[in-house]
From TrEMBL:
Identification of the protein by name: GTP-binding protein 10
CDD domains (alphabetical): Obg
Chief site of localization: nucleus
Pfam families hit by this protein: GTP1_OBG, MMR_HSR1
Locations listed in the record: Nucleus, Nucleolus
Keywords: GTP-binding, Nucleotide-binding, Nucleus, Ribosome biogenesis
Originating organism: Scleropages formosus
Length: 365
């Protein structure tokens, strides 16, 4: 029997993986005809990658989504050659693609400190232009976080993520019965009867303390940022990393996963997310599932059972909770359907938002 339960928590923040901005280079400065003075060049607009920056922070810094460089200084008797206008720098996270509105790729920025010119400043007035300056370049650009997959499987070691990826897709990851099987993202594709394909990544195993870079901490969490949707995978029977670490129930495991993501970057908690309760083929799992669903209906009512440092400050939004068995295939088809449905919902919302932005920008200009 396959259970499906909808558990919706309070949504916090908004994870941003793409952003559309209006950029304009500064106009050049006026020349001075009677003395042959040359106006200053207008400032340029650059996108520069920087650590500890997210696209949401870029959006918050520029709420109007308009970045204008400074105008060049006019030529004068005191300064025949006018100074250049002030450049504007848009700081963005590494791993982005910068494109124009007509889909032309302006640059791919992968490392910290890389930059690309997105709006050139106008030329200052000179003898050859009748001392009249030119306007700066103006256009809309898009900043897109490079994704490694549409869906990322998130869970502690031995939750069954690799086995689930094998059932869902054509991937053949190395699978074993000990922790840390997955040392790099394993990629697969879910292929539907109408030939629609959705990419999925089994992300390297997370452990407690990943936010402070324990285990593969930061590598794992950086991969999480590069997926559109998260699928949390927990063992219905609970989890214990080693004899020296405490046993965690399924409910505790969910809260720990949320806490690790929150401590690294709380924006991740607003990504679309599903919760998969795996290993439903084992004995007495129906009772354990019922207990977990009851706890998830009112998680705050059970926070007193958790250590204080394990209680998340914010909750994640689970679109659905789906019990499955990667070993027998129980619930896998329902999970495939649910993954596609939630991705298509998000895509429709993004499309509406983009159309609204374009309409507003057309009205302004």
């Amino acid at each position: 029997m396959v259970w499906m339960s909808r558990v919706v928590y309070r949504k916090y923040g908004n994870f941003v993986d793409n952003l559309r901005l209006y950029v304009k280079g500064g106009s050049g400065g006026m020349g001075l005809p009677r003395l042959g003075g040359q106006g200053g060049k207008g400032g340029d607009v650059w996108v520069v990658t920087k650590e500890a920056v997210t696209l949401k922070k870029v959006k918050d810094k520029h709420p109007q989504k308009r970045i204008l460089a400074g105008a060049g200084v006019n030529s004068s008797v005191r300064a025949l050659k006018g100074d250049k206008g002030e450049d504007q720098l848009i700081f963005a996270p590494p791993g982005i693609v910068v494109t124009s509105d007509d889909q032309k790729v302006l640059g791919e920025l992968n490392g910290v400190g890389e930059k690309v010119l997105v709006a050139r400043g106008g030329h200052g007035g000179t003898f050859h232009t009748g001392y009249l300056p030119s306007r700066g370049q103006a256009r809309h650009i898009r900043l897109d976080l490079k994704l490694i997959a549409d869906v990322g499987l998130v869970g502690f070691p031995n939750a069954g993520k690799s086995s689930l990826l094998t059932k869902l897709s054509h991937a053949k990851p190395h699978i074993a019965s000990y922790p840390f099987t997955t040392l790099r993202p394993e990629l697969g594709k879910i292929v539907y009867p109408d030939y629609r394909q959705i990419s999925m990544a089994d992300l390297p195993g997370l452990i407690e303390g990943a936010h402070v870079n324990k285990g593969m901490g930061h590598k794992f969490l950086k991969h999480v940022e590069r997926t559109r949707q998260l699928v949390f995978v927990v063992d219905v029977c609970g989890f214990q990393l080693s004899p020296k670490t405490p046993f965690r129930s399924a409910f505790e495991t969910v809260q720990l996963l949320i806490k690790e993501l929150e401590l690294y970057n709380e924006e991740l908690l607003s990504k679309p997310a599903l919760l998969v309760v795996n290993k439903m083929d084992l004995t007495d799992t129906e009772l354990k599932l019922k207990e977990l669903l009851g706890q998830l209906q009112d998680p705050e009512g059970f926070y007193h059972t958790l250590p204080k440092d394990m209680v998340p400050r914010h909750s994640v939004t689970f679109k659905d909770v789906l019990p499955v068995s990667a070993a027998t295939g129980l619930g896998v088809e329902e999970l495939k359907t649910c993954i596609r449905h939630t991705l298509e919902q998000e895509a429709a919302m993004e499309s509406k938002e983009l159309c609204r932005e374009r309409l507003n920008s057309t009205n302004r200009h």
